[in-house]
Amino acid sequence: MGIPVLVMGASGSGKSASLRNFEPAEVGVFNVASKPLPFRKKLATVNHADYSIIQKTLLANKLRCYVIDDSQYLMAFGLFARAKEVGYQKFTDCALSFYNMLALIREYTTEDTIVYLLHHTERDDSGHIKAKTSGKMLDNQLTLEGLFSIVLLAETNGKEYNFVTQSDGFTTAKSPMEMFAPKIDNDLKAVDTAIREYYGFNEEAKNNEKV
Length: 211
Description:
Layout: E1 3-9, E2 28-31, E3 44-47, H1 51-60, E4 65-69, H2 72-80, H3 89-108, E5 114-119, E6 121-123, E7 129-131, H4 136-141, E8 151-156, E9 161-164, E10 183-185, H5 188-199, H6 203-210
Parallel strand pairs: 1-5, 1-8, 2-3, 2-4, 4-5
Antiparallel strand pairs: 6-7, 8-9, 9-10
Helix pairs in contact: 1-3, 2-3
């Protein structure tokens, strides 16, 4: 039973840069939009990744950490491909495809597998910051953040880059109690380590449980 983690933020807020401290053997990156990573280190990356590629790779489950960057494009590209279709079915199918991917992560990967979805944000009609979808039709069928136990919000003031781990009432950020400080550095490797320690996934935590 793997764990999907949503990392949302505006373009330029440091989501992709947060991968910088992973070593190449530690993570697999599904690059949906096929954009270059914003640092020199080379990570194992699949460009133009789609649902079928992601599904095949996750079912093989050779790694324990994966990143989908940018996951909202899975929705957008799926709807673009069906732009000439009329009716609501394409929106239902779009929501179902995304939901099925999250279900696969939970049900068909090992319990110590973590999949990070880097995702753009938008403001709703009341001014709240939320994960971007492909329209109100999709929002009515899929409350995206409700499918995650951990939702981090990437933000920057132009000098510092951080993850917000708890909501202030105007965002959908959330995380389990005592897992993180309210605001942390945008270091996804450190986030990954904290999650594994919290749930006892790393070897040190497992050994401590046996003592």
